[in-house]
Amino acid sequence: MRIIQNAKALWADRSGVTAVEYGLIAALIAAVIVGILTTMGTNLTTTLTTISGKL
Fold first, then answer.
1. How far apart are CA 24 and CA 4, in angstroms?
2. Whole-model pTM?
3. What is the DSSP string of 22-38?
4. Alpha-carbon dihedral sign for residues 33, 35, 38, 43
5. What is the C-alpha separation between 2 and 47, in angstroms, rounded?
6. 24 vs 18, 28, 33, 36, 39, CA distance in Å?
7. pLDDT tens for each residue of 1-48
8. pLDDT at res. 30
9. Who's near 34: CB < 8 A, 6+ residues apart?
10. How many angstroms separate the CA atoms of 26 and 32, rounded?
11. What pLDDT sits at residue 13?
12. What is the pLDDT of residue 16?
């Protein structure tokens, strides 16, 4: 019975929700930045290889 009461208390506690939301937003922003930098890096490598070949 004590476990159920503790579970209900944890479910009703909202103090850590904001921190979790900010953590999720930061993780999403980091994933987008990594994706953009990976794409830009590939395009930049292709461009520099093309320029180098033409020189």
1. 28
2. 0.55
3. HHHHHHHHHHHHHHHHH
4. negative
5. 65
6. 10, 6, 14, 18, 23
7. 788 887 777 777 666 677 788 889 999 999 999 999 888 888 888 888
8. 96
9. none
10. 10
11. 67
12. 67
Euclidean distance between CA atoms 35 and 28, whole angstroms: 11
* pLDDT value of residue 55: 87
Token look-up 């994933």 returns 31
Q: What is the pLDDT of residue 53?
A: 92
Within the chain, what is the greatest distance between any pair of CA atoms? 78
- For 5, the token pair is 């009461």
Q: Where do we find the tokens 């292709």?
A: 46
Q: To which residue do tokens 């503790």 refer?
A: 6
Three-class DSSP category at 21: helix
Q: Which of 40, 20, 39, 17 is nearest to 28 (CA)?
A: 20
Reported residue count of the chain is 55
